[in-house]
Design a protein that fits this description.
Number of strands: 0
Radius of gyration: 20 Å
Strand content: under 5%
Order of helices and strands: HHHHHHH
Length: about 180
C-alpha cells in the first residue's frame, strides 16, 4: 500500500485490492510453511509452560479439535459478514470487533467471572464461547468425561453448523 494510505482514505482500498495476491498466486508450499509455523508455536508454548506445571494430556488433542471446529464456524460467519459488507470494508471491522471482544470477555477467557454480578453471569451463560473455554480447561487438565466438555462439544457443533450454513448460503447468494 502506498505511503500515507490507510483503510479510511478514498482510493486506497482500490490500490490495496490491486496489490493483493489472487487465488492463482497461491502455492502449496505456503500452506506447509504456515502449518510448520503453527506447530512450532504450539511446541514453543508447551515447552515454556511445562516447567510452570503444565502437563500435556491426550485429552488436549480433543481440545484442539474443538477449537478447530469452533474456528471453522466463526470463520464462516466472518466470511459471510465480509461478503455482506464488501462495499464498506471498515464496517466489517466495526461489526466484528463489536461482537468478538465482548464474547471473549463474557467467556471468562480473559477475566474470571466467579465473582461477577449475576446479570453478567447470565450473559456469559448465553455465550457459546464460555462453554468452549470451560471445556478446554477440563481437557487440558486431562478430564474428558465432564459436563463442561459435553457443553463445549455442543457449543462447537452448534457454532460450526450455524456458521457453515450462514456462510455457504451467503457465498451461494453472491456467486
Amino acid at each position: 500500500m502506498p505511503q500515507g494510505c490507510h483503510a479510511f482514505r478514498p482510493g486506497c482500498d482500490r490500490i490495496a485490492d490491486e496489490a493483493a495476491p489472487h487465488d492463482h498466486d497461491h502455492r502449496p508450499d505456503q500452506d506447509l510453511r504456515q502449518r510448520r509455523a503453527v506447530v512450532g508455536q504450539v511446541v514453543l508454548i508447551v515447552g515454556v509452560a511445562t516447567p510452570f506445571g503444565f502437563e500435556p494430556h491426550v485429552a488436549s488433542l480433543l481440545g484442539l479439535v474443538l477449537v478447530a471446529g469452533f474456528g471453522v464456524g466463526l470463520g464462516a460467519l466472518s466470511y459471510a459478514l465480509a461478503l455482506a459488507v464488501r462495499d464498506q470494508q471498515e464496517l466489517f471491522w466495526v461489526v466484528q470487533q463489536t461482537f468478538l471482544f465482548p464474547l471473549m470477555l463474557l467467556s471468562g477467557m480473559l477475566l474470571p467471572l466467579d465473582d461477577a454480578p449475576s446479570w453478567l453471569r447470565v450473559l456469559s451463560a448465553a455465550n457459546p464461547l464460555t462453554y468452549l473455554v470451560d471445556a478446554e480447561r477440563d481437557l487440558f487438565a486431562g478430564q474428558v468425561g465432564t459436563g463442561a466438555v459435553a457443553g463445549g462439544l455442543v457449543a462447537t457443533v452448534v457454532v460450526a453448523t450455524v456458521g457453515l450454513a450462514v456462510g455457504v448460503r451467503r457465498i451461494r447468494a453472491t456467486t
